[in-house]
Write a structure and sequence with these properties.
single chain, alpha+beta, Uridine Diphospho-n-acetylenolpyruvylglucosamine Reductase, domain 2, Uridine Diphospho-n-acetylenolpyruvylglucosamine Reductase, domain 3, Uridine Diphospho-n-acetylenolpyruvylglucosamine Reductase, domain 1, five-stranded antiparallel β-sheet, four-stranded mixed β-sheet, 20 strands, binds uridine-diphosphate-2(N-acetylglucosaminyl) butyric acid
Length: 334
C-alpha cells in the first residue's frame, strides 16, 4: 500500500477542482484500509474518506490523509427469484447498475448513470426516477475509523430518508463504508410510477432494460457529464414545505409543480424555484448554473470550490427572499 504526498485531487472530485491532498492513499482491501488508518494514527494526521468524489466540494487543499476506498469486488448469490449482490465501496455505481441489468438481475435500472461509487450510495441514499437506494438495500458493511471494528448495519439501522442516512449524522460519521448488500430480482417488473419516466416511455409495460435505456437517455439529455463539465449532480435538495405555505405559493405561482410528501407537507422542485428566479444558465466567472437543469451547479473549467460556495449562497439567499424557502445543500463542502 502506497501513501503518496502532495497529490492533486483533480481526477478524484467530479467538479474537477485542482486542489491537493497532503497525503493520499487508495486502499483496495480491508487490510490496506487498516494499514492506512494505522499510518494516519501513528503520524497523528486528520483523515478524509473519499469515494467517487461526486459528493464533496473542495474549497481548499486537504491537510492530512485522503483515503479512497477502492474495494471493487462484486459478489452475487442466487436463490430462486431472489438475487443478493454485494458491491465493494469502490465499485463504480453505473457499472454496477449496467452489469446487474445486463445479467438479468433487476431492481437498480431507475438509478442508472448516477455518478460516484457504491460506497457513497447509502450516505445520501441516492435516488432518481421513483427509486431510492434503500428500496433495494439489505445492509451496509462498515468499519469504525478509530477502533477498526467491523459493523454490519441493517437497512433499518441506517435510518434512511430522502437524501439522508445515519452516515450524515454525528452517530454514523466515524463509520467507513466497505460495501453494500443489495436485494435484486430475476423478475422483470420495473417501477415506472415517476411521471417523467412514464411520459418518456413508448411502451406502457416496459422491460427493465427499456427503463434502464430510457433513464440513461433522460439523464444524458438534461444533466451534464462530469467528465466534460465538472458538477456534483443536484446541488440542492428538493425542499419539503408546509401545506399552508404551498397554498400561498400556488396563489402566486399557479404553475408551480407540487409533489406529495406527508399529510401536512409537500415536496417542491428546487429546480423550478431556481429556474423561475432566473438563475438557469447564469454564469459567475468560471462557475455557473447548468443551462438545462437549474439544480446543477457547474465548473466550466478553471473554477474553484470557493466560487461554487459563493454562488450557492447567493442562490440560497435569493430563494429565501422570493419564496421564504431555505434550500438545503446536497454535497458536503470541505
Ligand atoms: N424543472 C424546471 N427547471 C429546470 C429543471 C426542472 O423548472 O431547470 C422542473 C421540471 O419541469 C419538473 C421539476 O422541476 O417539473 C422536477 O424536475 P426533474 O423531474 O428533472 O427532477 P428534479 O426534482 O429536478 C430529482 C433529483 C435528481 C433525479 C431526478 C429524477 C433531487 C435533489 N434531485 O431532480 O437527482 O435525477 O429527480 O428523478 O431530488 C441528483 O441527486 O444528483 C439528481 C440528479
Amino acid at each position: 500500500m502506497l501513501i503518496s504526498n502532495n497529490v492533486s485531487l483533480r481526477g478524484y472530485n467530479s467538479f474537477g477542482f485542482d486542489i491537493s491532498a497532503e497525503h493520499f492513499c487508495s486502499a483496495a482491501s480491508i487490510d490496506e484500509i487498516k494499514e492506512a488508518l494505522e499510518w494516519r494514527r501513528k503520524h497523528n494526521k486528520p483523515l478524509l474518506i473519499l469515494g467517487g468524489g461526486s459528493n464533496t466540494v473542495f474549497t481548499r487543499n486537504v491537510e492530512g490523509l485522503v483515503l479512497q476506498v477502492s474495494i471493487d469486488q462484486i459478489k452475487t448469490e442466487t436463490n430462486n427469484d431472489s438475487i443478493s449482490v454485494y458491491a465493494g465501496a469502490g465499485v463504480n455505481w453505473h457499472h454496477l447498475v449496467k452489469q446487474t441489468v445486463f445479467n438479468n438481475q433487476f431492481g437498480l435500472e431507475n438509478l442508472a448513470l448516477i455518478p460516484g461509487n457504491a460506497g457513497a450510495a447509502p450516505i445520501q441514499n441516492i435516488g432518481a426516477y421513483g427509486k431510492e437506494l434503500c428500496n433495494n438495500l439489505i445492509s451496509v458493511d462498515t468499519m469504525h475509523r478509530e477502533t477498526f471494528e467491523r459493523l454490519t448495519l441493517s437497512k433499518e439501522e441506517c435510518d434512511f430518508d430522502y437524501r439522508h442516512s445515519l452516515f450524515k449524522t454525528a452517530q454514523g460519521a466515524d463509520l467507513i463504508v466497505l460495501g453494500i448488500q443489495l436485494q435484486l430480482s430475476s423478475m422483470d417488473n420495473p417501477l415506472i410510477s415517476y411521471s417523467a419516466l412514464q411520459e418518456a416511455m413508448q411502451n406502457t409495460s416496459p422491460t427493465a432494460t427499456e427503463v434502464f435505456n430510457t433513464v440513461c437517455h433522460l439523464r444524458q439529455s438534461k444533466l451534464p457529464d462530469p467528465q466534460v463539465i465538472g458538477n456534483a449532480g443536484s446541488f440542492f435538495k428538493n425542499p419539503v414545505v408546509p401545506r399552508q405555505q404551498v397554498d400561498e405559493l400556488l396563489a402566486r405561482y399557479p404553475d408551480l409543480p407540487v409533489y406529495p410528501f406527508s399529510d401536512k407537507e409537500n415536496k417542491l422542485p428546487a429546480a423550478w424555484l431556481i429556474d423561475r428566479a432566473g438563475w438557469k444558465g447564469h454564469r459567475s466567472g468560471n462557475v455557473g448554473v447548468h443551462n438545462k437543469q437549474a439544480l446543477v451547479l457547474v465548473n466550466h473549467g478553471g473554477g474553484n470550490g470557493q466560487q461554487i460556495a459563493i454562488l450557492a449562497n447567493e442562490i440560497q439567499r435569493d430563494i429565501k427572499q422570493r419564496y421564504q424557502i431555505n434550500l438545503e445543500r446536497e454535497p458536503t463542502l470541505y
